[in-house]
Amino acid sequence: MTHFALQFYDFNEWANKQIFSRLNELPEDIYHQEVQSVFSSISKVLAHVYLSDLGWLGVFSGRSMNYALRIAEQLKEETEETGLADMEKLFLDLSDRYKTFLSQKENIDKQLVIEHPSGELMNTSVSELVPHVVNHGTYHRGNITAMLRQMGYASVPTDYGVYLYIQNSNQTK
């Protein structure tokens, strides 16, 4: 049986692919189009999610939270300016790194002590934090859906229930 954290991460990858597929169908300029929202453009939402996911993989691999935050700040502007095709590639490459990491039992069960920038310590595990990574992505895919609607375009379903239905349908064929 597949570990829940790995299955849940597979859902995250599927949902991201759904969003990229939809964005690739739309006029190219909407990716960087300025809107009045939580983020000022879809490119900035995706840069934020990518840098957060990158940071968490670093933390899972033994880097400090402060290190992850510094890297995100250093790469922020460059990542926000990345074009859609290159951003999609960054997401796919990072997903491959996550799946390789999570497929190793010693990694998925790894215990972590994370120091919050405030100095407080949190005892947790990789498997406990994967749902955080996925939920963070889900939240921001919702931002993208709202931004697309604001620009006059429909989004695509990216719910976990839809993913499970599709997975179940594929298994029964």
Q: What is the 3D shape?
A: globular
Number of strands: 2
Query: Cα distance, first to last residue?
Result: 20 Å
Tally of structural domains: 1
- The string of secondary-structure elements, in order, is HHHHHEEHH
Q: What is the CATH top level name?
A: Mainly Alpha
What name does the CATH topology carry?
Four Helix Bundle (Hemerythrin (Met), subunit A)
Radius of gyration: 17 Å
Q: Based on helices, strands and strand pairing, what is the structural class?
A: mainly alpha
Poorly predicted runs are none
| Oligomeric state of shown chains | single chain
Query: How would a crystallographer describe the biggest sheet?
Result: 2 strands, antiparallel
Give an overview of the whole structure.
Belongs to the DinB family. This is DinB family protein. By secondary structure, the chain is mostly helical. It has a single domain, classed as Four Helix Bundle (Hemerythrin (Met), subunit A). The protein has helices at 4-25, 42-60, 65-80, 84-102, 105-108, 126-150, 160-171, and strands at 111-115, 121-125. Helix 2 packs antiparallel against helix 3 (65-80). The longest helix has 25 residues, at 126-150. The two termini are 20 Å apart. The relative contact order is 0.19. The model has no long low-confidence stretch (mean pLDDT 95).
Throw out a few tags for this protein.
173 residues; mainly alpha; Four Helix Bundle (Hemerythrin (Met), subunit A); two-stranded antiparallel sheet; 7 helices
